[in-house]
Design goal:
Elements (H helix, E strand, L loop, with lengths): L2 H12 L11 H7 L4 H15 L9 H18 L9 H19 L4 E3 L9 E6 L8 H9 L12 E6 L21 E6 L8 H5 L5 E3 L5 E3 L9 H5 L5 E3 L14 E3 L11 E3 L4 H4 L6 H5 L5 E5 L6 H8 L15 E4 L2
Parallel strand pairs: 1-8, 2-11
Antiparallel strand pairs: 2-10, 3-4, 5-6, 7-9
Length: 336
């Protein structure tokens, strides 16, 4: 066969559809084709789902479609960015995914807010030791409001019972089960103090925690790697760790949530008080303040000279715990 005939034969063979020498496989084509991040994830997810057998069949089409959608949403959630770096559209997308995932898994809707800090607001807190009676209404309200794990009895707030004249946490009783107030004792509550100079933020190796403009120290639960450096750095024992997946009965889930606040968490991440960010950024008091029957808890805008908390700071003898550390906690104590 002549060189010319050989060339013609090869060209015919390649063009017949039986030869793949000049073709790319589907994966290479999808990688070389210009496409957005979301579209690429959808393509990759589709391939994984097909490999796992989650493809449409003649029966149970709806159930299978739900499985496919659930898996794809989880896949996209896994690759999302840090909340601080998200655009407004990306925040909207991730909230829509989380809401849809909850609906697929529970058949009910939740409302997740991404409301930003309000301008000219810096939140602060004051605790009146004279008025606290140790009733624990604040603790119970906090647990319910913030979807805290019921199995481990996680609590952001701790009420310390101390003997009169003995201001000592090492001698205090944090698990008292008797009628209150007990004679010869006083009560003092602790939680996250939302420091102006939070050491927990400085030690986080992945930027999963930071201080917002309104002073609230927050956590991006999906970026937390569970190293617990923040827990070790906090001088106020303000953080908690999920050793197991938090359990909240469906009928008790607070469906009014904030992305950086009381949305449902997962195993292996830290969490803490956020001044009920889902409430405070809507102009409401935190649940603990609202639930306190004696008015021992005061919350408000430190930048508002007419606010109740400013009146307390201006007219009462106040103090903060471990002020020598320079953390500048926005949580004060005082007595009548």
């Amino acid at each position: 066969m002549s060189q010319k005939e050989n060339k013609t034969t090869n060209q015919t063979s390649c063009g017949s559809g039986n030869c793949t020498c000049d073709k790319q496989d589907g994966f290479d084509q999808s990688m070389n084709k210009k496409t957005g991040r979301r579209q690429m994830l959808q393509k990759l997810t589709g391939g994984l789902l097909a490999g796992a057998g989650l493809v449409n069949s003649a029966c149970s089409v709806t159930a299978t479609d739900n499985k496919k959608e659930n898996a794809q949403l989880k896949w996209e959630e896994f690759f999302k960015g840090n909340y601080r770096l998200m655009t407004a559209d990306e925040k909207k997308e991730t909230v829509n995914r989380l809401q849809r995932l909850y609906e697929l898994n529970h058949g009910k809707r939740i409302d997740i807010s991404t409301k930003s800090p309000v301008k000219d607001v810096l939140y602060g807190y004051a605790f009146n030791i004279s008025k606290c009676r140790g009733y624990m209404d604040c603790v119970n309200a906090c647990v319910k409001e913030n979807n805290q794990d019921r199995d481990s009895q996680m609590q952001y707030i701790r009420i310390h019972e101390m003997k009169n004249g003995h201001f000592n946490f090492e001698e205090s009783d944090d698990d008292f089960y008797h009628e209150v107030p007990a004679a010869g004792h006083f009560y003092l509550g602790t939680q996250c103090y939302h420091c102006e100079n939070p050491p927990c933020v400085d030690v986080c190796p992945v930027g999963a925690t930071w201080k917002e403009k309104d002073g609230i120290v927050v956590i991006d639960y999906d970026w937390c790697i569970g190293c617990r450096y923040c827990m070790a750095a906090c001088p106020y024992d303000g953080r908690r760790f999920n050793w197991s997946t938090p359990e909240v009965p469906e009928e008790e889930v607070n469906k009014k949530q904030h992305y950086l606040g009381n949305r449902l968490r997962k195993k292996g991440v830290t969490e803490k008080c956020t001044f009920c960010i889902q409430r405070s950024r809507e102009g409401k008091n935190p649940a603990c303040v609202e639930a306190c029957p004696t008015g021992a808890r005061i919350f408000g805008n430190l930048l508002d000279p007419d606010s109740e908390i400013r009146w307390v700071l201006d007219n009462k003898k106040v103090f903060r715990l471990k002020e020598d550390l320079g953390t500048e906690p926005k949580f004060w104590y005082f007595m009548d």
